[in-house]
UniProtKB/TrEMBL annotation:
PROSITE patterns: 1433_1. Belongs to the 14-3-3 family. It comes from the Eukaryota. It holds the Pfam family 14-3-3. This is 14-3-3 protein. It comes from Melampsora medusae f. sp. deltoidis. Gene3D superfamilies: 14-3-3 domain (1.20.190.20). InterPro entries: 14-3-3, 14-3-3_CS, 14-3-3_dom_sf, 14-3-3_domain. Residues 1-177 form the 14-3-3 domain.
Length: 177
């Protein structure tokens, strides 16, 4: 596994993990919403079961994220040769740390948030040099990084500024064609 994956292999890995994590993230949001409604109603009888189920989903989410982060850090990032692969994997690392930060609290949230920020920054600095502003991976990175600023750091102004900059850079590139 210490050789660069093909584009197809890289995309299959990404889609596979995205599907697995996406289902659990959706479940977590639904269960958390139900939990809040039951708490607001003062329905203590159901809260224990709801919390236990949310804890189970969180444990599954954490395991999935830790698995792919281990593969990224242990193999894929260090064996990446092309700028495109480097950006792709650092973006993926940022995404999975962001998913951990979505449900974590306290120190765990801070650690995941910091790791996500660092991965997105690394991806951005490589993307700026290696990929054109219209490249789908660079645009996807800008979108996910802006979602991180908005949802995890509660910084909507920074989120909008980042997304607008990516959009403006891409439009400027298209205007030169």
């Amino acid at each position: 596994l210490d050789q660069e994956l093909t584009i197809e292999e890289r995309n299959l890995l990404s889609v596979a993990y995205k599907n697995v994590i996406g289902a659990r993230r959706a479940s977590w949001r639904i269960v958390s919403s139900i939990e809040q409604k039951e708490e607001a109603k003062g329905n203590e009888s159901q809260l224990g079961q709801i919390k236990a189920y949310r804890d189970k989903i969180e444990a599954e989410l954490a395991k999935i994220c830790e698995d792919i982060l281990e593969v990224l850090d242990g193999h894929l990032i260090k064996s990446a040769e092309s700028g495109e692969s480097k950006v792709f994997y650092h973006k993926m690392k940022g995404d999975y740390h962001r998913y951990l930060a979505e449900f974590a609290t306290g120190d765990k949230r801070a650690v995941s948030s910091d790791a996500s920020l660092e991965a997105y920054k690394a991806a951005s600095s490589i993307a700026t040099v290696e990929l054109p502003p219209t490249h789908p991976i660079r645009l996807g990175l800008a979108l996910n990084f802006s979602v991180f600023y908005y949802e995890i750091l509660n910084a909507p102004d920074k989120a909008c500024q980042l997304a607008k900059q990516a959009f403006d850079d891409a439009i400027a590139e298209l205007d030169t064609l």
